[in-house]
Amino acid sequence: MSMGTDPKEKQASQTYSFRPQLDGSLKTEAQAKVLTSFFARGDDLTFKEGSVKDVSDRGRAQVVDALMQTVAIALREAAAAKKGSAPITGGSAASPVWVLQEVFEQLDVLQRIRGRGRPSECLAAAEPLRRLATLPIDSAILKKTKIALELNQVFWKKAPREEVQQMVSVLVRQWRTMFRSEQGTLAPSEPSARSVRNLATDLEECAYSRAPKSVHYANLVQALLQRLATTPNLAASLLDGTQRSMDLVQVLHQRAVASPSVHATS
Predict the structure, then answer these.
(1) How many angstroms separate the CA atoms of 164 and 98, rounded?
(2) Do 210 and 50 form a contact (C-beta atoms < 8 A)?
(3) Taking burial as the number of CB atoms within 10 A of a residue's CB, which of 61, 62, 229, 235 is the most buried?
(4) How far apart are CA 22 and CA 79, in angstroms?
(5) Residues 180-236 pLDDT 10s
(6) What is the mean pLDDT of the chain?
(7) Residue 54: beta bridge partners?
(8) Residue 95 to residue 147: CA distance in whole angstroms
């Protein structure tokens, strides 16, 4: 890859043909060394100290790709660590007895409406459904009452009133999620590729805005890759908005300016 457009710069740069492995065979820090070696070996992003050229668009795009890879690995590492450290519990406290009785009462109303099979009475189910939505129902109550099984009946799934269909759908989805969570079978959701790319792009744009010249840009990006790799939880914080990309880049840039020969590793 060539980061510059000037022939002399192309001659001074090295060819970068390495593609990092993303199959999980390398730990985060090892992967980071592979990714940042791209900068350390004096290739396309690194020019002579006297260079005042801006980084090319192609070079910036390749940095986004490198950041995407590092963020994706860091997120997997953070998720694995969180899963491994999660305490084993006996589940949430049981709901009060009155909740169980209330669910049985609303279940009886719904079963009678369905049993009559009159589409005109469908809207009468709105009140018991609203009541169910306000109750602190847990997995034990779902098992005892079979209320979710009732709402999975075709009569409710294809109710003639759209508002009733929506209320049933929301309740069943919430109960399913709650049940899986309490039973420990809820798989952690993974961020979409678009979310990872958006974060990587945001980080790169912040880095470029702080250091548009090639040498300083390369140093800042290397420090950013190292920080993400050595602090996997940081990627999650950036993704959920608890940490701002600009704040992180600003800290790393200030350190790079203070110690240009030393990259941030803490």
Answers:
(1) 25
(2) no
(3) 235
(4) 16
(5) 776 655 445 677 888 899 999 999 999 999 888 888 898 899 999 999 999 888 888
(6) 75
(7) 213
(8) 15
With 70 as the cut, is the pLDDT of residue 153 above it?
A: yes
- Using CA atoms, how far apart are residues 222 and 35, in angstroms rounded to an integer? 9
Residue 133: beta bridge partners? none
CA distance 127 to 110: 10
pLDDT digits (tens, 9 = 90+) for 70-88: 999 988 888 887 766 544 4
- Residue-level pLDDT at 239: 84
pLDDT digits (tens, 9 = 90+) for 31-66: 555 555 554 544 444 444 434 567 788 889 999 999
CA end-to-end distance (rounded Å), the chain:
30
The per-type count for the chain, helices as H runs and strands as E runs, is: 13, 0
Here the tokens at position 93 are 């406290």
Largest separation between any pair of C-alpha atoms in the chain? 86
Q: Which residues lie below 8 Å from residue 223, measured CB to CB, with a gap of 6+?
A: 252, 255, 256, 263, 264
How far is the CA of 128 from the CAs of 51, 162, 174, in angstroms? Answer: 73, 16, 16
Which contacts qualify for 138-142: CB closer than 8 Å, 24 or more apart?
A: 138/91, 138/92, 138/94, 138/95, 138/178, 138/182, 139/91, 139/178, 139/179, 139/182, 139/183, 140/94, 140/95, 141/95, 141/99, 141/100, 141/103, 142/175, 142/179
